[in-house]
Each structure stands twice: as C-alpha cells, then as structure tokens.
Write a structure and sequence with these properties.
Layout lengths: L2 H6 L6 H29 L2 H10 L2 H16 L3 H6 L5 H13 L1 H11 L4 H9 L11 H5 L30
C-alpha cells in the first residue's frame, strides 16, 4: 500500500514517514549550503568570476554539480515525500532545489531561527546580550504592528472608503 492509498483510505500517516520527510528536507538544506560554499571557491576566483558572470554560467554549473551529487547517492526528495521508488525525474528536481535552494536555507536559518552571525558569535563568546543580538522573525512578530494612518473623509478619501453613491466611484 502506497502513502497515497493510506491517505485516501483515511488512515493516519505512519510516524516514521514524518521522520523520514524531516530528514530528507534537512538533507536538502544542508546539501544546498555545502554546495554553495564549495562552489564559492570557483565562483569567487578573480579570473573566472568575470567570465562566469558575463556568460551567466553560475546556475548551470550549480545544477550540474548538484545533479552529480544527487545522482551518485540516488537522493530523490520526491521519492521520500511520496513514498515512491527513486526516479531520474525526482533526482533532477532534487538537484534543482539543492542548486537554487541555498538562499532560502540561509534565510530560514538567519531570519526565522535567529542563527545569524551576530547570534552565533555572541553565543560562542558567551556574551549574548538581548539588546545587541539581532532579533529573529519570530521575535519580531511578537511586537505590535504599527497603527494605520487615519482614514481620509469626504472627497479626499479613496473611492473604496467613500459611502455608496458619493463621489467618483468606478462602475
């Protein structure tokens, strides 16, 4: 019985399925970050940097490198998500996510989870101060939202704030 059959039958998802999905997604994030740092040596080397930028070769090189890694270890995140056998299409999609996903992974770790350089340095030095450490997106979301500006009245108000039949309302 496949995962889709299990879900269609209204049966609960097996607990080991969620664990394997989380491991698969974590592997995508870690592999994306490792690949980005490894390719930075090539992409940021002076003589080659201008050539790669001029010919826009960074993305194809990153995709080829990610595909080589994913193909060599048969890493298919779609096979993990849908509990299916590993396939070439899934390996290619996984490689594309790995090649283009490092920016999203870094944003997740720095912005949402608060693993930015300032926080890591403060923890390593043992001198974390709440006023000096950058806030994560979760911490910022607890702050109240700013008040909206006061509404305009009469003819100065936008058409959606005017009473029915008053002003130049589009038909």
């Amino acid at each position: 019985m496949t995962l889709m059959d299990t879900l269609a039958a209204g049966k609960p998802v097996p607990p080991d399925y969620m664990e394997s999905v989380m491991v698969g997604l974590a592997l995508v994030v870690v592999l994306a970050m490792i690949l980005e740092r490894a390719l930075a040596v090539l992409f940021e080397w002076g003589p080659i940097e201008t050539l790669l930028a001029k010919r826009k070769l960074r993305a194809p090189i990153a995709l080829a490198a990610a595909w080589g890694i994913c193909q060599s270890v048969q890493f298919d995140v779609l096979a993990i998500l849908f509990a299916r056998p590993v396939g070439w299409g899934g390996v290619l999609v996984t490689a594309a996510v790995v090649a283009g996903g490092s920016k999203g992974a870094i944003l997740l770790f720095q912005g949402v989870l608060g693993f930015g350089k300032g926080n890591v340095d403060a923890v390593l030095l043992g001198a974390r101060r709440s006023d000096a450490a950058p806030q994560s997106a979760i911490q910022r979301s607890a702050e109240p939202a700013p008040s909206p500006p006061p509404a305009k009245a009469g003819a100065d108000a936008p058409w959606w704030d005017r009473p029915p039949g008053g002003g130049n309302r589009p038909q």
